[in-house]
Amino acid sequence: MAKRIEKANLPQKPCRTCGRPFTWRKKWARVWDEVKFCSERCRREGKA
After folding, report:
1. Is residue 9 domain-resident?
2. Domain that holds residue 24
3. From CA 22, how far away is CA 43, in angstroms rounded?
4. Is the pLDDT of residue 2 over 80?
């Protein structure tokens, strides 16, 4: 069986646009170092 990671122990980063912390998601597993924004909205506003 795979080792489970508790939600409280997932890595976090601050969003570059709003500064709020966001938590690791499984779909970001391969690109976690490249993720900079917490949402699509912050990504769009960050480029402006």
Report:
1. no
2. 14-46
3. 13
4. no
